[in-house]
Specification:
alpha+beta, Multidrug efflux transporter AcrB transmembrane fold, Alpha-Beta Plaits, 2 domains, two-stranded parallel sheet, 13 helices, about 70% helix, elongated
Length: about 350
């Protein structure tokens, strides 16, 4: 524990310099593995789309004292409904089924009323057609595309297109991994989930902009006589923003974690778990991607520019040891020149000795 505390204090004082950019191969393997697992989950499991997207019927009523999820499910299935999903939303039960005709909707209402001794009008019903659900999904996709285009335009104008490309790649990385976790977990994708996706995109963008702004400020001073490469300058800027990124992420994640783990388990806030899962996963992945995906990608793009290639070549030449100096006259003359120099020095010493005698 003391070692962890020491590392934490050094981190907060800015005494720790982590080579994020130099470990880009490690981050590539880690991100590639997460993306592969997520894509497999999306292809094999698929997303559990909510009723708002695929259409169906929803029944909700006050939770009786003696009732359970299995009991409610068997009651609704006994009335002829299929694909029954029962959720606990605070003090009420929320039951979703496939799209039912009006006669079967009434039959389900009557079955619930008779089972739990409640009036029929106290069983709220909502019927969502598949066409309307498809329109909601299309609008969500359009909103996502518009958001991405706006991000590209903003970053291109505020910074440059290479930073915009790195940020968009990081955002797509965050979306795929978050969607993959939804696929493997089986959580229902609702409009609240889409709001969560848009929120994490904005959060990830904020983190990337903070890092890129510092990188832009540091690398703007790099000239022909610079004493560090673009990679070193970018990594230095990244370490300067590390504490800010971690603090912001931690403060944002704590209340979301409270909603996800405490609110849904102790207080039964089932309607919030779809939103909170997207936020929880997206914030963690977004912080990781801004540090370990967006910045290394940006550095790889920038180091190919002639200006920064020349700086790296000049600094590499200064740091490389010189074993045998080879003069411009040709090969092999370096050793002859060294021997001649040594001989001249020895002759000068001998002459000096004769003078002293």
């Amino acid at each position: 524990m003391s070692r962890i505390g020491t590392i934490g204090r050094r981190l907060y004082r800015g005494e720790v310099n982590i080579d994020f950019v130099g470990r880009y191969k490690l981050w590539s393997v880690l991100s590639g593995t997460l993306l592969l697992i997520s894509i497999v989950g999306l292809l094999v499991q698929g997303l559990n789309l909510g009723i708002e997207f695929k259409g169906g019927s929803v029944f909700s009523f006050t939770k009786p004292a003696a009732s359970s999820i299995e009991d409610v499910r068997s009651t609704v299935e006994g009335a002829g409904a299929h694909q029954v999903i029962v959720q606990e939303a605070g003090t009420r039960w929320r039951v979703t089924t496939q799209s039912l005709p009006a006669a079967e909707v009434t039959k389900v209402q009557d079955a619930i009323s008779a089972k739990y001794k409640i009036a029929g009008h106290e069983v709220d019903k909502q019927i969502i057609g598949a066409t309307w659900g498809g329109e909601v999904l299309n609008k969500a996709v359009i909103g996502l595309i518009v958001f991405m285009i706006a991000i590209i335009l903003y970053l291109t104008m505020a910074f440059e297109w290479k930073m915009a490309l790195a940020a968009v790649v990081a955002l797509i990385h965050d979306l795929i991994i978050t969607a993959g976790i939804y696929a493997w977990s089986g959580f229902e994708v609702t409009p609240a989930t889409m709001l969560g996706f848009l929120t994490i995109l904005g959060y990830s963008l904020y983190d990337a902009v903070v890092v890129f702004d510092m990188i832009k400020e540091v690398t703007a001073k790099l000239g022909t006589t610079a004493k560090m490469t673009y990679t070193e300058a970018a990594n230095n800027a990244l370490n300067h923003t590390l504490i800010r990124s971690l603090n912001t992420s931690l403060v944002a994640i704590l209340p979301v974690a409270a909603i996800l783990f405490i609110g849904t388990t102790l207080f039964g806030a089932g309607t919030l778990k779809d939103l909170s899962l997207a936020l929880f996963v997206g914030m963690i992945v977004g912080t990781y991607s801004s540090l370990c995906v967006a910045t290394p990608l940006l550095v790889n793009l920038k180091e190919r520019e002639p200006k920064y290639m020349a700086i790296a070549k000049r600094l590499a030449g200064k740091s490389s040891p010189v074993k045998d100096a080879v003069p411009a006259g040709g090969k092999g003359k370096g050793k002859e020149h060294a021997a001649a120099t040594t001989g001249s020095a020895n002759g000068a010493v001998a002459t000096d000795k004769r003078k002293k005698r």
